[in-house]
Amino acid sequence: MTVSHVHAPDDGASHVAEHDDAHDHSHHGPNFRALFVICLALTIPTLVFSTGLPSILGLSGPRFPGSEFVPAAFGTAVLVIGGRVFLTGAVGELRARTPGMMTLISLALVVAFGYSLAGLLGFPGMDFWWELAILVTILLLGHWIETRVISGTRDAPAEPGDDTALAEIGRLVAEAQAGRSGAQLLADRAAALLFSVALGAAAVTLVAWLFLKPDDPAFVVERVVTVLVIACPHALRLAIPLVIALSTALGARRGILVRDRAALEEAKDVDVVLFDLTGTLTAGRQGLVSITPAPGVDEAEALGLAAAVEAKSEHPIARALVTAAGERGIKIPRSAKFASLAGRGASATVGGRELRVGSTRVATEAGIHLDPSLVHAARDANREGATVVLLLEGDTVLASFALADVVRPESAEAVAALQKRGVRVAMLTGDSHEVAHHVAGKLGITEVFAEVLPAQKSAAVAKLQAGGAHRVAMVGDGVDDAPALARADIGIAIGAGTDVAIESAGVVLASDDPRGVVDILTLSRAGYRTMLQNLAWATGHNVVGLPLAAGVLAGVGFLVPPAVGAVAMSVSTIVVALNARLLRRLRFRR
């Protein structure tokens, strides 16, 4: 299976799936820039004709009859044109019963607008239109930058490949990202709690400053608005989805197809990996292990003759002999009079010589004598689980060939890499103890389950789990592996495996390379670290920002204006997105 260009589905910025209608940045992203430019142009006359900002700066703008209404007109235009996206988003959040960032921003805008309107109608207070206009404009700028950063985070280019594979990979990635994991649910609950905390903080701020500064309503409103704006459940809710969007797409680039988001998250805790032998650590096909020529017979010539006899056969052993000759650069002679001998091999004429390739049973039944070296070689090969075939000319045995399931060259590296990480590696097979321990010894595996029937594989997984004391990943490819894959904490299907195995797994390796298991653990652990970093940042921003916005340091002259609060809110989201993008620098095994 090849991998093509994969994009994470459109999560939108604050926007786990259920929030898309409320405020999907990816859909509104192109508009934020235009809205920012328009509102910036409208904010300039609001500032020029305002009485609030010029008085603070010791400046005065032009005055003419009715000029006091200019800030109100332009400030209202800014709210209607630029603030509409936030107000609409708040309505969507409230309809979905998931109030969050848009609701808090809208409350701040409504409070600022209400106070400004009250001043225009003659109630005590100062001109606040300029604050409202700047706040909306800064919010639009921040969200425009956010969309660019988050859009770059969600997209993950992958290797070119065929459209069919691309569609399947895209479907798996989309399903994984649409799923709800425990970590995401926790972040959503924390974001919902933060919304309530922000509302409570705004209420406390209002009451406290009304008591402390009853003669300065503009100051009170400014503090309340800043508290509402600086609170950022947005970053908290994004802390995990952005990492998942990027890690699943990044995994697809590496041939790691995530069917279950929770499986990828939980892979970080795996401390035992159980490999099924056939088709996982081995290639599931016959390969030539050794050649033992009779005294006086050339090894290469014997292999060439055997390959010539089997050249027209489709039997796995025949293919293995032909492939081995080709890999060794041996020229295969032409053959004639090929005949398949049911259950006994094949015969052919090669260079005028009548040759046969068959099992040791053929020689035994014909009473053909084998040289002692051939007998010993056959016994050793059988002990290691190999199949032995003979090359015969008449009643003379020219050579014996030992063939066995080919151990993948990457398997030993995969086992060593896992063990280096402190992960126990075990092997499961239906083969005999002798064969199982022989292969395990070559791979460096000491824990072996041999002569295991298909129905017993799930029990082997349960034994390794030891009642929950260990997190076990099962790696397999066959129909009979499906129950064990489902029983394991993490089921990993090799890409060439059966549909049943793939459906039972939480993660699928698109290639047959067992080193992909190491990549899964690497990706899971890196993603988890990034999630923790994002959550820590998003939480810390609010823990520090809310008290400062409320004015706890007002006594020493430190105050956070609403516009600065808006910038801080956007910066918090941008930091979370940029930190998620650092996953792209993740170094895998090669």
Automatic annotation (TrEMBL):
Species in which this protein is naturally found: Pseudolysinimonas yzui
Record-given protein name: Heavy metal translocating P-type ATPase
UniProt region (Disordered), positions on chain: 1-25
Gene Ontology MF: a single term: ATP binding
Transmembrane portions of the chain: 34-57, 69-92, 104-122, 128-145, 190-212, 224-252, 535-558, 564-583
GO cellular component terms given for this protein: plasma membrane
Family: Belongs to the cation transport ATPase (P-type) (TC 3.A.3) family. Type IB subfamily.
UniProt topology in membrane: Multi-pass membrane protein
